[in-house]
Amino acid sequence: MTIKDTPEAWEIRATDTPFVGNKTSVRTDDVVMPDGTVVGRDYQVHPGSVAVLALDESDRVLVLRQYRHPVRHKLWEIPAGLLDVPGENPLHAAQRELYEEAHVKAEDWRVLTDVYTTPGGCDEAVRIFLARDLSEAEGERFAVEEEEADMELDRVPVEELVRGVLAGELHNNCLVVGVLSLVAARGGDGLDALRPAQAPWPARPFEA
């Protein structure tokens, strides 16, 4: 038996969007259940995101520490950001985020993994890239504002991040999934066997 997620869409009898924000909205769908009953389901509509696990020549991961108001924590994270335009190439978005948040560029890009962050209440899909062969980006640094003005930047060994994840000290979804996927890939067919950076992404289709 092959374990694989499959697309499926149950019938929607009615839909409403009671809240629309700058980047996301909240939608209510009346969904027909298998027994024929109709149940309301509220969820956040999200444009999708990309994240970058940037790995340097010393086996350290580039991480950021940023305040996240909904959880009232400063979290260690990997560079990440929204897909600003529908159909945007996720690789281009990831390269932009790595430049803007860390002023770093990478020569080798692979798809590390694709995830739905909170499928019970949000349709956000995230593509996490592995970026290697890092160097300082050229040009002026991106001007930061709001929470990013307080952001810290560091490079942390992979084994220290794994320890922090398993100890319950690191909680950011993309960091946790990215770091553990990196370790799993190394223990499997190796990093060079990962999907190419332009691999199809059915959750957020794009033009290569």
Automatic annotation (TrEMBL):
<dbReference type="Pfam" id="PF00293">
    <property type="entry name" value="NUDIX"/>
</dbReference>
<protein>
    <submittedName>
        <fullName>NUDIX hydrolase</fullName>
    </submittedName>
</protein>
<feature type="domain" description="Nudix hydrolase">
    <location>
        <begin position="44"/>
        <end position="178"/>
    </location>
</feature>
<dbReference type="InterPro" id="IPR000086">
    <property type="entry name" value="NUDIX_hydrolase_dom"/>
</dbReference>
<dbReference type="GO" id="GO:0019693">
    <property type="term" value="P:ribose phosphate metabolic process"/>
</dbReference>
<dbReference type="GO" id="GO:0006753">
    <property type="term" value="P:nucleoside phosphate metabolic process"/>
</dbReference>
<dbReference type="GO" id="GO:0005829">
    <property type="term" value="C:cytosol"/>
</dbReference>
<keyword id="KW-0378">Hydrolase</keyword>
<dbReference type="InterPro" id="IPR015797">
    <property type="entry name" value="NUDIX_hydrolase-like_dom_sf"/>
</dbReference>
<dbReference type="GO" id="GO:0016787">
    <property type="term" value="F:hydrolase activity"/>
</dbReference>
